[in-house]
Amino acid sequence: xxxxxxxxxxxxxxxxxxxxxxxxxxxRIIVGFGFAALILWGAAFLINRLSPSEKSTSxxxxxxxxxxxxxxxxxxxxxxxxxxxxxPIYNEKKQAVPSVSSHEPKGETKSSPPETExxxxxxxxxxxxxxxxxxxxxxxxxFWGWRPNDLIQFTDNVNEYQLGVLEVTRRATSRLTDNIxxxxxxxxxxxxxxxxxNGLMLSSDSYLFPPAETQYRESLNNLKLYMDQLIRNEASFxxxxxxxxxxxxxxxxxLGSCDExxxxxxxxxxxxxxxxxxxxxxxxAKGVAASMAVILEAVKKDFDKTLAIRNGDxxxxxxxxxxxxxxxxEPWLFVTEANLNGVFANHRANMGAHxxxxxxxxxxxxxxxxx
Length: 371
Description:
The chain is mainly α. Helix content is 59%, strand content 0%.
């Protein structure tokens, strides 16, 4: 009897020891994962702090835009995005015009003041420059370059932002090719613009044969070739109302799509919009707004006479202002989906307000130009 009791006690002790070991092992595993996550977060924070400034360091030596390809590196931790996704690359300071002294010797020809860089640019150059800049920045100047086709996806905020920039560039290039650079549907397409338009249609996640960034760079180079033709007066750029309206209509449709994604609570399949989807909708709309603001600024310059005749300047300024507000929104750490009546921010709804205003004014301008 004593032996049986001792054996029973030993079995219970073994079971207790095994349970304690399992508990100890699980605690070590959980703590290990916690430390690993903390280390990854810290590494991402350091990478973001040490990443190069997003200011453009390249200088222009001609009215054209110089495309400088850089190597593509895959992936970055997503913990502290959006990495200042509103790129401060598009606003260039204008050089002041040197003053000319009125005290000149008699008998000498009075030299006229040199023209500003803006006044010397042919019609259409501002537009093409603005069309190139946002996507050029995402391809060649942003830290780690083009990301939607990375084999391992460590980020999604910048990825969605870049997709928004790409979509605006695609639509503007298409309208430039089909409407702004020719008189009608029977006129021949500019070969450089046709190549640029077709190249931009490549899927953003194409990794090989060819890589997306390679194809997009080639498209930007073709846009630059068209711009060189404008400078040499060998290509056409028509700044009439009927040439601009299709671009505005296309932008209005894109803003409408973004607006819907920013305010909806249910997906098409009936599921509630998840936090991750809300995050993606937010940064996609931000990319759309940032790049669209740049192009609309160029429209204000190249279509100035058309806008003045139809009193569209103020409307266009309102549209640009709304896009700029959306582009400069910077959530702290991550996008929150708080209750609209709560004390915390609902970033998606806040973004939706600016996008909705931009959509209204772009549509209003298209209507004003069509009357």
